[in-house]
Amino acid sequence: MSRAPRSWDTESLPTGDRKAKAVRQMFDAIAPRYDLVNRIMTFRLDVRWRRRTVGALRLDKGARVLDLASGTGDFCRELERQGYSPLSFDFSYGMLAADTSRAPRAQADALVLPVRPGSVDGVTCGFALRNFVELPAFFAELSRVVRSGGRIALLDVSVPSNPLVRAGNAVYFGRIVPRIGAWFSDAAAYRYLPRSVSYLPPTSELCRMLAAASFDDVRHEQLSGGLVQLLTATRR
User: Fold this and answer.
1) What's 39's domain CATH number?
2) What pLDDT digit, counting tens, does each position of 159-216 carry?
3) Which of 9, 34, 129, 227 is most exposed, with the fewest beta carbons within 10 Å of its own?
4) What range defines the domain where residue 98 resides?
C-alpha cells in the first residue's frame, strides 16, 4: 500500500495556511531524532551558535525569556545555564513531547502568543524565521509581549557572502544534508529545510521590519562564515 503524500514533500514551497500545516506536520514527524540530526549535520556548531545567541540577550539574571519554536528544549537548557528563566512555546506538539528541558511549555502559534503585553524580558528563537507564515506579524507579536528595554535574539540560517563558502554551503545542504536526513530521520524534511532559506528576505529588509515593529539597536551578524545569522534588538 502506498503512503499518502506528506504536506512538506512538494516540488514548490508551500505558502499561507498550507505552509503552516506542512511545518507543524513535518516537525511532528522529525521530532524523535531532531537533536541527533542537528548535531551530525552541523558538526555540533549548533551548540556554539545557541550559546552565542543567548549571550547576546545581555539581560539580568533571572530574567523571564520566551523561547519560541522551542523544539526539544536546547535553547531553554542554554537559557537556564546562563541564569535566565525560560518558557517554552512551539507550534508542534511532537517537538514539545520530545522536550527534555525543565522549562514550562505550551503549544502555541508564535503569531498569537498566550502572553500578556509587556510581560517578558526577552525572546529567543532558533532556526524558525523561515517557517513563519508572516514575518511582520511575528515581529509585531514580539513587540507586544516584550517589555520596554527588553531584548530579542533571533538565530537562523543564512546565505554566506563569500562566494567559495556559499558554493560549498549550497552543495553540502543541498546534497549531503538530505542524505543524512534520509539515514536518520525523514529525507523529504531535510530536502525541504535547506530550500526553505529562500523564504527569508534580505538582511536589510529583516532589520527594517524589526525597526518598524518598535525595536531599536537592531543588529545583524553572520556567524561561522555566514552559515547562520543572528539578529538582536531592544524593545523601544
Assistant:
1) 3.40.50.150
2) 998 999 999 999 998 899 999 999 999 989 999 998 999 999 999 999 999 999 999 9
3) 9
4) 16-159+200-235
